[in-house]
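Dissemination and training. As part of the outreach component of the grant, students in the summer workshop were shown how a complex can be specified as a set of sequence lines and then modelled as a single object. The example used during the hands-on session is reproduced here so that future cohorts can follow it. Participants entered these lines:
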Amino acid sequence: MKGEFDLATAVRDLGGGSYSATVTHGWDIGGNANGGFLMAICGRAMADHVGRPPLTVTAHFLAPAPSGPGTVDVETVRDGRRLATANATLRQDGRDVMRVLGTFGHQTFDQQGDGPTLVTGAPPELPPFDDCVIPRSPSDDFAPALFDRLAVRLRPGDEGFRLGVPTGRAEIAGWFAFSDTQPIDAVALLFVADAFPPPVFNTGLPVGWVPTLELTVHVRGVPSPGPLRCVYRSRFIQGGLLEEDAEMWDSRDVLVAQSRQLALTPRDVTSDPVTPRG
Amino acid sequence: MKGEFDLATAVRDLGGGSYSATVTHGWDIGGNANGGFLMAICGRAMADHVGRPPLTVTAHFLAPAPSGPGTVDVETVRDGRRLATANATLRQDGRDVMRVLGTFGHQTFDQQGDGPTLVTGAPPELPPFDDCVIPRSPSDDFAPALFDRLAVRLRPGDEGFRLGVPTGRAEIAGWFAFSDTQPIDAVALLFVADAFPPPVFNTGLPVGWVPTLELTVHVRGVPSPGPLRCVYRSRFIQGGLLEEDAEMWDSRDVLVAQSRQLALTPRDVTSDPVTPRG
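and obtained this result:
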């Protein structure tokens, strides 16, 4: 049986590289669909078209996407033996919403599993899932509908930005799963890269929202079953821009995806549709 | 007067978004042009077409590029007030060599200079330029022609991979300038992101070459005059793939660019055109 996320990001092949999709209500923040969610819709159409899962995908955000129908037009750029490169545009009502460029292929570059290996890093240290913090309270009627779909649990303290006690560090870590426990595949990882609150919220800086310009995700492994441990950090908040890096680790302590986005840090918080309350 | 790099990456506007370019001999490694060099050619054509410098650019590498003529076809995806998004293909002899997607705009998101700022990081600590190490020896007739064009100086010890004494860490740091001291602009930063030897060479792992699949560069500032301090690291070498992150810092200690690439770590070193000697 397909999970809620698989159904929400499903696309229908119209032939010739065109796919119909629906930006489903319930995966949005303040009425506009989550960027990673849109990227997953595009990634699913592209993966279907080239017959391989995503390996490295970059999305450029052109316009907000309200709920409603859309189309994804996929063009194969290169179709090689192991890798295929494709380009895609997500459109709604004749307007370009997102442009995507990606290379697709199976994680089979080291079939023997004995290739060059050196990992400098480890999953974030987190208390058990049930001891971490739900990112919204039940009484929070403004809270993003998105978090109803997700079993996200924040590292205790990292919810400080919502309570008026930011940690002072641009970092948020926690567990990720889908509420319906559907498995997390390569397309879902494109979504996970953008599924947590922005870590800049924990700095205490006057940043009310963080519109993404560009998001790149590298899929580095096939997740083993169970929730992921994720950490999101911004190291360079300067000049009206920030980068946000994420790492996603599975239950075997394998890094399964790495992502980076470039986003704006608008000064005008009066036009802010998604200021966290707290 | 234009510098050697500006001349080598120059493009000629043929109208309709088409540009002619020449992949110049002397910017190659073992006969194939450096990836960042090709990205700079594309970035220059795209920047000309949309009238703005690069801000975030992603290139997917489709085929090696020998010396010779090429064309860059640029398509404007979105032309906004402050930002423009464009797509480009570099072709040689009818073959697609590189596909690029980028968003272009001036670094003017924080015109007052008093926006939210928090930097967690610092330039690599390096001895003075003249106390660092030239990455090739004068007798090294196989050494990449590329390094003739560049005033690259490695942190002492980081040249160990060439001498049979790798440091054991996937990190290489050093100074970057052009040999003719031409200023480093936003297009040049696309090149700098890929201009050092791969840090994996210092692990001692049996990785002979590192073919790039994808390279993303975020331009985060306009460099002040003088050489840059750069550091290149790979943290996750696994599954036949690695990521390589770079930071580029200017003489004011400002991070002016950040980059990440995804590359293969082929096991077959017998087919290796660029094994470092030492």
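Residues 6 and 128 of chain B are 27 Å apart (CA to CA). Students were then asked to discuss how this feature might be tested experimentally.
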